[in-house]
Specification:
The protein is mainly alpha-helical. It has a domain at about 20-60. The protein has helices spanning about 1-30, 35-45, 50-60. α1 (about 1-30) packs antiparallel against α2 and α1 packs parallel to α3.
């Protein structure tokens, strides 16, 4: 019984700390307007684990241009990126045509 109480208290403490740190980062950010920050803060404190979503929104997509999975493929073309048309629908040099 005492172990369960300790585990629950530890989980709540970790969640509250993560929410507080993400809230601080959100309000220091210039990415969102005031009403958006209010809505995201409410979401974080009412939905457990929502700090992961808000933290994802706060990340800088250009912070790791070294070819990571979520990096922009149009950045650093001089380092070996060769595709002229970075379109989602471009399937090769023939423009996506199929050959039998």
């Amino acid at each position: 019984m005492a172990l369960a109480v300790v585990l629950i208290a530890g989980s709540v403490t970790c969640l509250a700390t993560a929410n507080a740190l993400t809230t601080r980062k959100l309000w220091r950010s210039s990415l969102f307007e005031h009403p958006q920050k209010v809505a995201q803060t409410i979401l974080m404190w009412l939905a457990p684990g929502a700090f992961l979503f808000v933290g994802y929104l706060l990340r800088d997509p250009l912070a790791n241009p070294s070819g990571a999975i979520d990096a922009d493929p149009t950045v650093n073309r001089e380092r070996g990126y060769y595709e002229d048309n970075p379109s989602l629908f471009n399937q090769g040099p023939d423009g996506g045509g199929h050959h039998l």
